Automatic annotation (TrEMBL):
<dbReference type="GO" id="GO:0080032">
    <property type="term" value="F:methyl jasmonate esterase activity"/>
</dbReference>
<dbReference type="InterPro" id="IPR045889">
    <property type="entry name" value="MES/HNL"/>
</dbReference>
<dbReference type="InterPro" id="IPR029058">
    <property type="entry name" value="AB_hydrolase_fold"/>
</dbReference>
<protein>
    <submittedName>
        <fullName>Pimeloyl-ACP methyl ester carboxylesterase</fullName>
    </submittedName>
</protein>
<dbReference type="GO" id="GO:0080030">
    <property type="term" value="F:methyl indole-3-acetate esterase activity"/>
</dbReference>
<dbReference type="Pfam" id="PF12697">
    <property type="entry name" value="Abhydrolase_6"/>
</dbReference>
<feature type="domain" description="AB hydrolase-1">
    <location>
        <begin position="5"/>
        <end position="225"/>
    </location>
</feature>
<dbReference type="InterPro" id="IPR000073">
    <property type="entry name" value="AB_hydrolase_1"/>
</dbReference>
Length: 231
């Protein structure tokens, strides 16, 4: 049995893995899909105090309190910021890191440093919750199926602004021995340079020309096969 920990991206929550999770569990594996503080079912905790370091601690504490070892740690989009921070904190608990069209920043860089176009895409936080951005039009991220858009729109919640402005902390541990797989969704090429850098650093990079940003929503079976084949 493999334990998978799936970390969602901006505006989402553990619910965002609903199509992928049962495919892994059907093969007899344990799958944990934490919701990051301030989002979805943990939206009551939202505020301007929630940042990247909060979310790194969310997942680090999950691994520690659940006594998890040899975990396959998966991050989608902003979740890549989080799993990179977790990797630098408890590498001994992680067997493999998978980035699904995700940030993979260098220490000291924020999400906005990696993708400077994001502030224009996100816009200004609304007056009713100045601590967080409202969900963007997800068609801009390559999500076009009406059912997918309705499902996401019904569940997405504001994203705390500090998460994308706070830089990744410098790692406290050497994680160079943990293998990395990067899935690039080439039909929505936000992370073309990130994938290139990952390959240069020795990661296994899988480029899907027909996939847009939400690979686990649009292609759950293909995503599951990548994760299952890591064993």
């Amino acid at each position: 049995m493999t334990t998978y920990v799936l970390v969602h991206g901006s505006w989402a929550g553990g619910w965002n893995w609903a199509r992928l999770r049962p495919l892994l569990e059907a093969e007899g594996h344990r799958v944990l899909c934490p919701t990051l503080s301030g989002l979805a079912d943990r939206g009551h905790l939202a505020g301007d105090h929630i940042g990247l370091s909060t979310h790194i601690e969310d997942v680090t504490r999950l691994l520690t309190w659940e006594d998890l070892d040899r975990v396959v740690l998966v991050g989608h989009s902003y979740g890549g910021m989080v799993v990179t921070g977790v990797l630098g904190t408890v590498p001994e608990r992680i067997a493999h890191v998978v980035y699904l069209d995700a940030f993979r920043p260098e220490p000291g860089r924020s999400a906005f440093d990696v993708l400077p176009m994001l502030p224009d895409l996100f816009g200004e936080p609304p007056a009713e919750h100045p601590w967080g951005w409202a969900p963007v039009d997800l068609t801009a991220l390559g999500l076009t199926d009406a059912a997918d858009l309705d499902w996401m729109a019904a569940k997405c919640t504001p994203m705390p602004t500090r998460t994308h402005r706070e830089p990744l902390p410098h790692p406290g541990r050497d994680a160079s021995g943990v293998p990395v797989t990067y899935v690039q969704a080439a039909a929505a090429p936000f992370f073309t340079e990130t994938a290139r850098q990952a390959a240069a650093a020795g990661a296994t990079v899988l480029t899907w020309p027909d996939a847009a940003h939400y690979v686990h929503v649009q292609h759950p079976e293909r995503t599951a096969r990548v994760l299952l084949d890591l064993r």
